[in-house]
Amino acid sequence: MNPGGEYARDSRYITTRVTADGRDGFPVEPGRYRLVVSRACPWASRAVIVRRLLGLEGVLSMGIAGPTHDERSWTFDLDPGGRDPVLGIERLQEAFLARDPGYDRGITVPAVVDVPTGKVVTNDFRQITIDMSLEWTAYHRDGAPELYPPELRPEIDAVNEVVYKDVNNGVYRAGFAGSQESYAEAYERLFARLDLLSERLQGSRYLVGDTITEADVRLFTTLVRFDAVYHGHFKCNRRKLSEMPVLWAYARDLFQTPGFGDTVDFDHIKKHYYLVHSDINPTGIVPVGPDPSGWLEPHGRAALGGRPFGDGTPPGPVAPGEEVPAVPGRS
C-alpha cells in the first residue's frame, strides 16, 4: 500500500526462461523443474490451470505453499515437517537466495525452480504459462488444447493487456489504494472494463475465438475470487459477480470445465487475503461465506456454441495429491 497514493505492483521479475532449445541455459527436461505455487494466488493459479489443461503433471512437478506468508516469503507448511519434499526447503525465499544471495525483490509465486541446484529460474508469471504452451509441446498430453494459437495471438495479447491493467491488477489498485481518489479511479476503471467484457461475452462463449485460450485462463482467476474476496475485502462493491449475469454465467462455465474449478480452493483463497492483509483486515476474521455451491448451477453458455478444447479433449482426473476440497454438490 502507498499511503496517500496509487498502488503500484513491483513487476521486477526474474525473466530467465525454460525453453525447448535451452537458449537461456535451462532446457525443457522432464523432472528437472518444480513449479511452486499457492492456490491462494491468482497469478499462480494461472500456471496450475495451464499445467493441468496441457497434461504436464508427469514432467513438471508442483510444490504447493500454504495460503499465508510473512514478510520473508511463502512457506511449505502444508508438507510434513514444513519442508517441500522435493526441494527440501522451508521457504521459497531459499530458492531465490540460492540464485542471488543479494536478491531484494518480491518472493512471488508462481516460481519455477531448478531441482538439481535448488535455484529459482523464473517467477515471471506472464511468460511461464506462455512457455508451457509453446516450449513444452513435446510433453503435452494427447488431446491437449491449443491455448495460444498463432493466428489468435495478437488478439489474445491485446485482450490480456487491458484485462491485466483494469481487472487482474485493477482489483489490487482498488484494494490497496492509499487515497480516496486513487481508489475511485481504480474502481471506475475496473467496472467499466467488466461492463465491456460483459458486452464482448454476451454473444461469444469465450474471449477470443471459439475455444478456451490463455485469455480465458487469465480472466477466470480474478473472477473466481471476486465475490469471496474482492467485492468486500478490496471494496470492489458496485455489484457482486453473481449479480453480473453474463460474467457470472461465463465464469461458471469455465469453473465447471475440467482443469478450472477442480484447481480452486476457496478456503486457501479466503485465508490468504483476510489473514495476510492485516492492514486492511486487522481483526484477522475470515468470512464464512459466500456459499460456493452456486458455482455448480447451470450456466446455459453451451447454447452460444464454441468448443472448449478445440480439436483436443478434456484433461483426465486430477493427479493424486493435487485434489482440492469439493464444492458442495461436486463429487
Please estimate the helix content.
25-40%
Q: What is the count of structural domains?
A: 2
Find the count of extended strands (DSSP E, 2+ residues): 4
Oligomer: single chain
**Overall outline:** globular
Strand order of the largest sheet: 2-1-3-4
List the uncertain runs: none
For the record, give the distance between the C-alpha atoms at the N and C termini, rounded to a whole number: 40 Å
In sequence order, what are the helices and strands, one letter per element? EHEHEEHHHHHHHH
CATH architecture of the largest domain: Up-down Bundle
Major sheet summary line: 4 strands, mixed
**Count of alpha/pi helices:** 10
Strand content: 5-15%
| Residue-averaged pLDDT | 96
Give the structural class. Answer: mainly alpha
Provide the gyration radius in Å.
19 Å
Q: Which CATH class of the largest domain applies here?
A: Mainly Alpha
Task: Tell me the CATH topology of the largest domain.
Answer: Glutathione S-transferase Yfyf (Class Pi), Chain A, domain 2
Region (Disordered): 296-331
InterPro entries: Glutathione-S-Trfase_C-like, Glutathione-S-Trfase_C_sf, Glutathione_S-Trfase, Glutathione_S-Trfase_N, GST_Omega-like_C, GST_Omega/GSH, Thioredoxin-like_sf
Protein name: Glutathione S-transferase C-terminal domain-containing protein
Biased composition (Low complexity): 319-331
